[in-house]
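Take a minute with the sequence and C-alpha cells given here and flag any C-alpha cell that looks odd. Thanks in advance.
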Amino acid sequence: MNINIVGHHLEVTKAIEGYVEQKLRRVWRHFSNGQEANVVLSVEKREQKAEITVHFQGKDLHAESKHDDMYAAIDLLADKLDRQVLRYKEQHQSGGHPSRVAAKGLDQV
C-alpha cells in the first residue's frame, strides 16, 4: 500500500505521519487490496481537516473529517474509512448490495 500524506497550510511532521500510518494499519487489517491512499491534512481558520482517498481495484473510497484537534480529526477519519472498507468488503465478497440479498429472501437460507 502506497500512502501519500500532504499538508495544506500545515507542516506534516514525523509524529503526524506516524500517527496517520498507525491509524490506517487498523483499516488495512480488514482489507489489504488497496493500491494507493492519498491523505490531505489541512487547516482552515481554527478547524483541522483530514481527507483520504483510497484507490481499490475498481472502486475509490473517500472520507473526510473536521475537528478542532488534528489528531482527533485523524481518529474520526480512520473510523469513517474503516466503516466504508467493511461495507465495501461485504459487498465485494457477497457479489451485490446487502439489501438485494435480503429482498430476495436469500439471507434466510
The first strand starts at residue 2 and ends at 8. The mean pLDDT is 83. The helical segments are 14-28, 70-94, 98-103. The chain is about 40% helix and 30% strand.
